[in-house]
Amino acid sequence: MPRKKQLLIFHLKLVKNKKSFIQSYAKMLKIIKKTGSDVKFSSASPNSATAKSIKISGKRISHLYDVISSNTDAKKSKKIINGKLVAFDTKTRKFKIEYSKDGSPCLLSGNVADEVITSGESYVILDEYDATLEVTRTLNKSNSEMEESFKLIKMVHSGS
């Protein structure tokens, strides 16, 4: 692995909210890319000896943006599971459902869609439901990690 990429991965490990940071960085690069200009970044410091300045060409900005924006692939799909509603919080818009996968108990959690909250339905904890989920699978190409997130988009009492 190239040294620059190793340094980037090392420094990204220090960032708490990587997804938000990368999105903000990509957004900034996109704005600069649209100008087609070279950019000079300067750090400020009371000690002028530690102040640094770097210049990045418009061509390099364009390349960086292309690398960052193509660094993640997201795919969405729908999945229906039958399980026991363990938690449902309308304020934080979070849910948890316990279900069986290959005979083993599994706990799935995620966000609740606005339509589910505003539907007027009431849900009973520990009752069985057929839950329709929007599954977002994101592949981070830099570290080859697959991340899944779930959004509850429909829930029907199964009566089991």
Which characteristics define this entry?
about 160 residues, alpha+beta, five-stranded mixed barrel, OB fold (Dihydrolipoamide Acetyltransferase, E2P), 2 domains
Gist of the model:
The chain is an alpha+beta fold. The mean pLDDT is 83. It is 28% helix and 43% strand.
Global mean pLDDT: 83
Helix content: 25-40%
Question: How many strands, what sense, and barrel or not for the largest sheet?
Answer: 5 strands, mixed, barrel
Query: At CATH's second level, what is the architecture of the largest domain?
Result: Beta Barrel
The secondary-structure element order is: HHEEHEEEHEE
Q: How many structural domains does the protein architecture include?
A: 2
**Rg to the nearest angstrom?**
22 Å
Class of the largest domain, according to the CATH hierarchy?
Mainly Beta
Distance between the termini: 53 Å
Number of helices: 4
- Uncertain runs are none
Task: Indicate the topology.
Elements: H1 3-12, H2 18-35, E1 39-42, E2 53-56, H3 58-69, E3 72-89, E4 94-101, E5 104-112, H4 114-117, E6 128-140, E7 145-157
Parallel strand pairs: 5-7
Antiparallel strand pairs: 1-2, 3-4, 3-6, 4-5, 6-7
Describe the structure.
The chain folds into 2 domains: 3-43 and 50-70, no CATH class; 73-157, OB fold (Dihydrolipoamide Acetyltransferase, E2P). The chain is 28% helix and 43% strand. It contains 4 helices and 7 strands, in the order ααββαβββαββ. It has helices at 3-12, 18-35, 58-69, 114-117, and strands spanning 39-42, 53-56, 72-89, 94-101, 104-112, 128-140, 145-157. β6 (128-140) and β7 (145-157) form a beta hairpin. The protein is elongated.
